[in-house]
Amino acid sequence: MNSTAALAWTDICAVDDILPSTGVCALVANRHVAVFRVDADRFFAIDNVDPKSGASVLARGLVGSIGDRVVVASPLYKNHFDLQTGECLEAPEQSVNAHSVRAVGGRVSVAVAA
Q1: How many of the other CB atoms lie within 10 Å of CB of 23?
Q2: pLDDT 10s digit of each residue in the chain, 114 long?
Q3: Are 25 and 59 in contact (CB under 8 A)?
Q4: Distance (Å, rounded) from C-alpha 104 to C-alpha 93?
Q5: In which order are the strands placed within the sheet that holds 62-66?
Q6: How many helices (H) and strands (E) does the chain have?
Q7: Backbone angles phi, psi at 58, to 5 degrees
Q8: Which candidate, 26, 40, 21, places its Cα nearest to that of 109?
């Protein structure tokens, strides 16, 4: 998403509530969203529902990298989802939505894709 001014931001939690290399789940505009913290100050948000199983579990996956891509591995089927784009590396047809995320004033907020 290019323009952050027109987005409807939802406050999720304090920055310190998400440990580096982990994720949390939040309900944003009736969507299950997984919010990840990578390193000290990089945040990503994707849909939390694993498309293969239909379970809301991606926030509990393992965060890592494949090449230059930051990914999360689904805890159920181990498919890898690019945290920047939501693309499923093993099965692109099972990709999820990526959402805008920001950390301002010690708080993390998300705006879901339409």
Answers
A1: 26
A2: 444 557 899 999 999 999 999 999 999 999 999 999 999 899 999 999 999 999 999 999 999 999 999 999 999 999 999 999 999 999 999 999 999 999 999 999 999 966
A3: yes
A4: 34
A5: 62-66, 69-73, 80-82
A6: 0, 9
A7: -60, -30
A8: 26
- Domains of the chain listed by start with CATH number: 10-111 (2.102.10.10)
Distance, CA of 17 to CA of 12 (rounded, Å): 10
Give the integer Cα–Cα distance in Å for 95 and 87: 4
The CA angle 102-96-42, to the nearest 5 degrees, is 25
Q: What is the pLDDT of residues 37-64, one digit of tens each?
A: 999 899 999 999 999 999 999 999 999 9
Calpha distance 98→114 (Å, rounded): 11
